[in-house]
Specification:
This protein is an alpha+beta fold and 279 residues long. The chain has 6 helices and 15 strands. The chain folds into 2 domains: 2-148, Fructose-1,6-Bisphosphatase, subunit A, domain 1 (Fructose-1,6-Bisphosphatase, Chain A, domain 1, 2-Layer Sandwich); 159-277, D-Maltodextrin-Binding Protein, domain 2. It has helices at residues 2-21, 32-52, 171-182, 193-202, 223-236, 268-277; strands at residues 57-62, 68-70, 77-85, 97-104, 112-119, 125-130, 134-140, 145-148, 159-162, 186-187, 207-210, 221-222, 240-242, 260-261, 263-266. β9 (159-162), α3 and β10 form a beta-alpha-beta unit.
Length: 279
């Protein structure tokens, strides 16, 4: 796994330098969509090049096309990759991130062996998790990623990060959110899953929720690219991640790479609240 971690740090440094520091080089005036597509293509090519150099990596699948591309036929691991988490925020100069998942042999939650997210912007930081190492937190010092004190979620937090349009929420979800506000929780939401995850981990607790709605009855988060990798990190940090009732990592996609889910994660206290309200 050392070579995979090294590839992740290489990819992250290239994206930070080429995309965030030199964003204007990608800009096509009056065509934000093409600008974003060019950035995604560039990042995807960088990732494919780095992972292809690792014999143990079999293939990679990108969120933007959801097609598995074989890199090394004899490889063992499948990489899921979100180049820019919520790319629509990029031109607004907001902090965004990158998300990686590393699956052993088959893409299912319980086959994850490592996952990672990276935050760009004012803070260039990386959170990497494996079953053996637990959750590791790194901050870039201008030359290299330096390991810092790791995260461990407390039993109860103070942050409420609720994603979505409140007008589409179910009555039960509205009651859950109001209950948290009544208990003094603060609303914090960036609309970037990696940044919202980072905030809950950094503050040692809270709740992130992306519920099913009338518009999205199956939920909005991709299992493969978002729910599985983030849930893996949160659980290793001492928290929980569910679809409302069930452990995210236990749920199956049965080969459907595009399958979506509601997603709730955070401290154990908040997850018990979710189970009580979202039954």
């Amino acid at each position: 796994m050392d070579s995979i971690f090294q590839a992740i740090t290489n990819i992250s440094k290239i994206i930070e330098n080429k995309v965030f520091t030199n964003y204007d080089e990608f800009v096509i005036l009056d065509d934000l969509n093409q600008t974003n597509q060019d950035i995604l293509q560039y990042c995807n090519e960088v990732a494919k090049k780095e992972f292809k150099a690792i014999d143990g990596v079999n293939s990679i699948v990108m969120q933007d096309d959801k097609k598995i591309e074989v890199l090394n036929k004899k490889g063992q691991y499948i990489i899921s990759f979100i180049a820019i988490d919520t790319i629509d925020l990029l031109d607004l100069d907001f902090s965004v991130g990158t998300i990686f998942g590393v699956y052993d042999g088959k893409i299912e939650g319980n086959n994850l062996v490592a996952s990672c997210y990276v935050t760009y912007g004012p803070t260039f930081q990386l959170v990497y998790a494996t079953k053996d190492l637990g959750v590791k937190f790194y901050s870039f010092d201008g030359k290299a990623f330096i390991e810092k004190e790791s995260f461990k979620l407390e039993n109860k937090g103070k942050i409420n990060s609720t994603d979505g349009d409140v007008t589409t929420f179910s009555a039960s979800h509205k009651k859950l959110i109001q209950k948290l506000f009544d208990e003094g929780y603060r609303l914090r939401l960036s609309n970037s899953l990696s940044l919202d995850t980072h905030q809950i981990l950094f503050k040692r607790g809270g709740l992130y929720s992306s519920p099913k709605t009338l518009k999205d009855p199956e939920g909005k988060k991709d299992f493969v690219f978002e729910a599985y990798p983030i849930s893996f990190i949160v659980q290793l940090a001492g928290g929980e991640a569910i679809d409302g009732q069930n452990n995210i990592l236990d749920l199956k996609i049965d080969g459907n790479i595009a399958k979506k889910t509601p997603l709730y994660f955070g401290s154990k206290y908040e997850i018990e609240k979710v189970k009580a309200f979202e039954c």
